[in-house]
Amino acid sequence: MIGVAIFSGSLPATRLALTGFDPLFLTSARGALAGLASAALLAIVRPRLPAGGDIAAFGVLSLCVVLAFPLLTAFALMRVESAHAIVFIGLLPLATAGFGALRAGERPSRRFWLFACLGSAIVAGFALRGGVSLEPADLLMLAAIVAGGLGYAEGGRLSRRLGGWPVIAWANVAALPVTLPLAWWLASPHVSGIPGPAWAGLGYVSLFSMLIGFVFWNRGLARGGIAAVGQLQLLQPFLGLALAALLLGERIEPAMVIAALAVVACVAGARRAA
């Protein structure tokens, strides 16, 4: 629950950060800052090192949660408001459960998958309500959901052996050879003109979305099961929509609320069936 509450601020904070930074710099900067903070934490606490066989899994985790998900959502939020994008987060629990079955050997019931498919259909219907094809931002959000689901499942699987916070810390450090040079190269020389809210958004997504939230989230997935605990994300659309309205002044359309409620109902049913 703590992890979900923290993640609920990620898209509104990304939207704030985009008022002063472009998506490529924002993605690399948040990854670099999280990687440096993670390296300091690992140096102080000194948890046991991952096994050699975990290298590929950490590569997938870093690619999904440090690079792909932030970059795809940032580009999507350049085209739509965060309130619109947040509705798609209703698919993330279903994607997490699917990859939990593929990567962690979990086997939810048939009723679980029935609710999962129904929730996916509702989200697709919301995205297509204005026409017969998905908008580019919608496609970016769907790709982000796939990356996020795979990353969450991989993180939950690794956390069973290594613990919640070391897993995300090692994943952030593993991405540093990419994120740190890229952030340095893309950094703007005119930092004085960047508004304060953009800096606040960057700080939030770097420390809370990329590190602190995963400390709680990975541990929860490891202890309670990826499919079952992953359904707690059903609260994220509600919290995210509230934050988008309060912090960004975005208008919450009735269709967004209806879609979010319908997705939450499906995910609640899937949670019980799991």
Could you explain the architecture of this structure?
- The chain is an all-alpha fold and 274 residues long.
- It contains 14 helices and no strands.
- Helix 2 packs parallel to helix 13 (236-248) and helix 3 crosses helix 9.
Short summary of the structure?
The protein is mostly helical. The protein has helices at 2-7, 10-17, 23-45, 55-77, 82-88, 92-104, 110-127, 136-162, 164-174, 176-186, 196-224, 226-230, 236-248, 254-273. The mean pLDDT is 84.
List the helices and strands and how they pair.
Layout (H helix, E strand, L loop, with lengths): L1 H6 L2 H8 L5 H23 L9 H23 L4 H7 L3 H13 L5 H18 L8 H27 L1 H11 L1 H11 L9 H29 L1 H5 L5 H13 L5 H20 L1
Helix pairs in contact: 2-5, 2-11, 2-13, 3-4, 3-9, 3-10, 3-11, 4-8, 4-9, 5-13, 6-8, 7-14, 8-9, 8-11, 9-11
Keywords:
mainly alpha
Using only CA atoms, what is the Rg? 18 Å
Order of secondary-structure elements: HHHHHHHHHHHHHH
Straight-line distance between termini: 18 Å
Whole-number average pLDDT? 84
Number of helices: 14
> Tell me about the biggest sheet?
none
Outline type: globular
Beta-strand segment tally: 0
Helix percentage range = over 70%
Low-confidence parts, pLDDT < 50 over ≥5 residues?
none
Structural class: mainly alpha
Assess the beta-strand content as a share of residues. under 5%
